[in-house]
Amino acid sequence: MTTYYGLLSKIMTEISQVLSSVDEDKLGKIIDKILNSKRIFVLGVGRSGLVMKGFAMRLMHLGLNVFVVGESTTPAIGKGDLLIIGSGSGRTPSVVTNVKKAWEYGSAIISITSNKHSPIVEYSDFTIFLLAPTPKVKTGNFNFSIQPMGSLFEQSLLIFADLIVLMLMDKLCMTSDKMFKNHANLE
Amino acid sequence: MTTYYGLLSKIMTEISQVLSSVDEDKLGKIIDKILNSKRIFVLGVGRSGLVMKGFAMRLMHLGLNVFVVGESTTPAIGKGDLLIIGSGSGRTPSVVTNVKKAWEYGSAIISITSNKHSPIVEYSDFTIFLLAPTPKVKTGNFNFSIQPMGSLFEQSLLIFADLIVLMLMDKLCMTSDKMFKNHANLE
Amino acid sequence: MTTYYGLLSKIMTEISQVLSSVDEDKLGKIIDKILNSKRIFVLGVGRSGLVMKGFAMRLMHLGLNVFVVGESTTPAIGKGDLLIIGSGSGRTPSVVTNVKKAWEYGSAIISITSNKHSPIVEYSDFTIFLLAPTPKVKTGNFNFSIQPMGSLFEQSLLIFADLIVLMLMDKLCMTSDKMFKNHANLE
Amino acid sequence: MTTYYGLLSKIMTEISQVLSSVDEDKLGKIIDKILNSKRIFVLGVGRSGLVMKGFAMRLMHLGLNVFVVGESTTPAIGKGDLLIIGSGSGRTPSVVTNVKKAWEYGSAIISITSNKHSPIVEYSDFTIFLLAPTPKVKTGNFNFSIQPMGSLFEQSLLIFADLIVLMLMDKLCMTSDKMFKNHANLE
To answer: How far apart are CA C18 and CA C147, in angstroms?
Structure first.
């Protein structure tokens, strides 16, 4: 069996490669879009969905008005709102259906995917490509990982989302202590 | 095996008995409390928790600002807020802990329970007793059900909560059609 | 405002009407199908989904091998399995998509719906009709409720599912006390 | 504002530092414990809880019998079972309560925490320390992060858990393709 430190080194290298392919120029516009939207909705399925929930939690800590698609008290999306999707393949049927609907309802859309040919790209105001392989799609630039299924995409998605949180903290002059005051105190 | 209609008749009779023990005089004050709170949080564990999530969904449809304890974007509770708990035994440790905390943070509290001796009663501004048996507590008034565990409490809790929704609709002049416009359009 | 007891009486009458339309002859076969399936999957969206989760919890208490579509550890469905759907309209896109897929994967299907014209009916081995109105479909037999959206369907679904639980308890010689031993002891 | 690549470099360095403090010698025993347990339960709250759900999903893909504490069909824990906890502070009241209960019920316990003084350590058969700061506990070795609250712990927890998955794949001779066959085909 490969050693812990051998595997760790490989995983960290893989994540670095994926996150080095991000188009930095889009980030300022994405930050502005997040800050200027009336309400933010996040969407994802499976492990990507779990990462997006964690992202939504941090956006709430920042004082933004945010909802997770599929949770109990999430209202109807509409004009002035923003939908942020994390989906490796960008082809999961329920994700594609929901992106189309959100577009019809007039919401802005940001997608984060590894698939340049995903149907959600054409509906998105901004797309961030995290070029990791997924079980459904082999990407051109980066088509091998020692990790199973979408693990590399999901790890990269978490770190990318948390990096966006740092940029938002900077813009909003928020600190960890201030954010912690918004954190759920019943759990 | 007892027939479908035999069982149906027994279940409906049990629910009617439980819901006939409700103190009607408290309801006006509860409706006012719900409408005058800054934000509403709902709390429950297990099947009671599922019913409370469904109640929260309807409160959102009514245009109220509502959160489910434990969901991703639920913020910290505090003064001016209202916590509504549904708990048959009123003794589940995490429920009791959370009720105490909410009280310390200055939130108002409404509890719905079958247990007159529950520790959450003393922290509650209003308590509604639905006197069904639960697996942890045998209540005085009504200590037998043909149904397992807390089923009778949970059924009664759903119908009671939906009845409160009807009263809120009346006060807010809301219709089913208006509420449906707030319903999640991504799912 | 209508009184508590006035509303209660109307709700109970509505539920009784819906549950009186059930075709009792199918129930024996449904019970057998549940007991003879390798694994059981439950599916629902919104408040119907919450009711189906509560049903799954009771099936687990009965010692059956059961999963909720969308929860973290739910595996792939296939031959020998059974999918049980609760959907008022029977037309929610993700529900229809999943039913078709489950059928293709070789799973048996039981649906509970208020819509006789739902596309899920043709894929189902057995369908139970609970003829309550839903916001998307006005049913023939019973097209009015004082309650908003799908509330009457959801209440009827809960009681119907709990009635099936009673029939399963009888067949399996299970008691509430035995079931409680299977109940989650961490929560 | 610090640039994307500036922040990325800092985050990756922080994660590497945390994961370099892991005691590699324990990992073989942890892998064996996971493989030799009758059933595995995972537990976590907030963002750590989301990571643990993602870990549970991969354990299911590997063909193991795994449950998430708090999901609908999770049964009672007992002798022969294993509880794996991810908790930065190791002091969240519901986590501590559940760990004590699991210990009383005879389950084995593995905890992953950043807090060497956490009360869950004494109940654990094995503890992995990921020495990141958390909002509730400042750890000795590594008490600063540019990231808010427990983000660094949560990122490290995800990568650590995914590394354990690689070790389990090796032991079980599982491939990504085989695992994908177990992946939920309804979603």
So the answer is: 13
Distances from the Cα of A162 to the Cα of A41, A124, A168, angstroms: 17, 21, 10
Q: Let me know if residue C7 belongs to a domain.
A: no
Predicted-assembly ipTM surpassing the 0.90 threshold: yes
Mean pLDDT for the stretch of residues C51-67:
98
Pick the residue with more confidence: C134 or D111?
A: D111
Which residue in A94, A96, A99, A101 has the most chain C C-beta atoms within 10 A of its own C-beta, making it the best mutation to test that interface? A94
A7 falls within a domain: no
Kindly report the pTM of this predicted structure: 0.96
3-state secondary structure of A82: strand
Counting one residue from chain A and one from chain C, the pairs whose CB atoms sit within 8 A come to: 11
The stretch D26-50 carries a mean pLDDT of 98
- Structure-token match 């079958």, residue found: B114
From CA D161, how far away is CA D152, in angstroms rounded? 14
Q: What is the pLDDT of residue C181?
A: 96
For C115, left (φ over 0), alpha (ψ -120 to 50), or beta? beta
- Window A:85-124, CB contacts with D under 8 Å: 92, 94
Mean pLDDT of chain A: 94
Residue C91 lies in a domain: yes
**Is A32 domain-assigned?**
yes
**Tell me, what's the pLDDT at D1?**
55
Element (H, E) at A57: helix A46-61
Q: How close A157 gets to chain C, by Cα (Å)? A: 19
For A181, the closest of B60, B69, B76 (CB atoms) is: B76
Lowest-confidence region among C90-94, D95-99, D100-104: C90-94
- State the Cα angle at B124 between B119 and B125, rounded to 5°: 155
**Closest chain D C-alpha to B98 CA, distance in angstroms:** 10
For the residues of D86-139, what is the DSSP string, one character each? EESSS--HHHHHHHHHHHHTT-EEEEEES-TT-TTGGG-SEEEE-----SS---
Residue window 6-45, chain C: list those with CB within 8 Å of chain D.
41, 43
- Other CB atoms closer than 10 Å to residue A43's CB: what's the count? 28
Looking at residue A187, what is its pLDDT?
Answer: 82
What average pLDDT does the segment A25-45 reach? 97
Contact of A120 with A99, CB cutoff 8 Å = yes
Give the residue on A whose Cα is nearest the Cα of D18: A8
Rg of chain B's alpha carbons, rounded to an integer? Answer: 17
pLDDT of D137 strictly over 90: no
Q: Which amino acids of B are annotated catalytic?
A: 154
Total structural domains within chain D: 1
Give pLDDT tens digits for B157-170. Answer: 999 999 999 999 99
pLDDT at position B134 over 90: no
Task: Specify the CATH number for the domain of residue A54.
Answer: 3.40.50.10490
Residue type, A54: G
**Separation in Å, CA D132 to CA A96, B21, B84, C68, D141:** 37, 53, 36, 35, 8
- Provide the domain limits for residue B141: 18-178
Name the residue with tokens 């948390």. Answer: A162
